[in-house]
Amino acid sequence: MADPIDRATATEIVERLRVFAQPQRLAILTALLQGEQSVAAIDAATGIGQPALSQQLGELRRAELVAQRRDAKSVVYRLIDERTAAVVRIVVAAFGSNDPLEAGIRREDAPARRAHVGSAAMFAVVDRS
């Protein structure tokens, strides 16, 4: 069993998790699990709308969860790293999705994971293909 973390570390982790705990930002992050997306593609996938989408993408950039690049006239976003993708998958798998494919979990791993839903810890399998 892991040792309890100190209050400062717990506060730091909770502040980081708050970025994920906003519906529009979580929707954007899940859309980016599919790979790089233009702002128009993210808008089409999430239905957030341009003003709110720009604001939330800015928050995600400041939190260093997404990166952007220019592609001709459009801006393309991606998740900053696999660690961020793993956190998004775990959050969706733990709290939101009954379909493991939606959370980026391989179907063949889903029955074993579902068998432990009531346990103290939940883990997602990250498909790196």
TrEMBL record:
<dbReference type="InterPro" id="IPR001845">
    <property type="entry name" value="HTH_ArsR_DNA-bd_dom"/>
</dbReference>
<keyword id="KW-0805">Transcription regulation</keyword>
<dbReference type="InterPro" id="IPR051011">
    <property type="entry name" value="Metal_resp_trans_reg"/>
</dbReference>
<dbReference type="GO" id="GO:0003677">
    <property type="term" value="F:DNA binding"/>
</dbReference>
<dbReference type="GO" id="GO:0003700">
    <property type="term" value="F:DNA-binding transcription factor activity"/>
</dbReference>
<feature type="domain" description="HTH arsR-type">
    <location>
        <begin position="5"/>
        <end position="99"/>
    </location>
</feature>
<dbReference type="Pfam" id="PF01022">
    <property type="entry name" value="HTH_5"/>
</dbReference>
<keyword id="KW-0238">DNA-binding</keyword>
<protein>
    <submittedName>
        <fullName>Helix-turn-helix transcriptional regulator</fullName>
    </submittedName>
</protein>
<dbReference type="InterPro" id="IPR011991">
    <property type="entry name" value="ArsR-like_HTH"/>
</dbReference>
<dbReference type="InterPro" id="IPR036390">
    <property type="entry name" value="WH_DNA-bd_sf"/>
</dbReference>
<dbReference type="InterPro" id="IPR036388">
    <property type="entry name" value="WH-like_DNA-bd_sf"/>
</dbReference>
<keyword id="KW-0804">Transcription</keyword>
